[in-house]
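Person: At home tonight, work slowly through the protein below, taking as long as you need, and write a paragraph about the fold.
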Amino acid sequence: QVHLVESGGGLVQPGGSLRLSCVASGFFFSRGTMQWFRQAPGKQREWVALIGSVGGEAKYADSVKGRFTISRDNDKDTVYLQMNNLSPEDTAIYYCYFDGYWGQGTQVSVSS
């Protein structure tokens, strides 16, 4: 059974940084394209970034391009989201996603 467990969220000031982690289990992690989504209060869930299984090709939403970096460690079955230069507009619950499965989410709040 697939399990995705996110961590690393918290409260940060504008301009700050956070690194989210998602530990995966129940599937062959190194073969899976992993994605991050987020859902802000009162808004629909939106796609943030993905990283491919082969070569680790990364793609980003325009809203985070140049500020966020997705990466993976296949030895640890973990995908990361490094978030820099955060703004209040980045406040949301961040979810890890694989092939129809979602993690429980981790809250990121950006406020002074």
In short: The first strand starts at residue 3 and ends at 7.
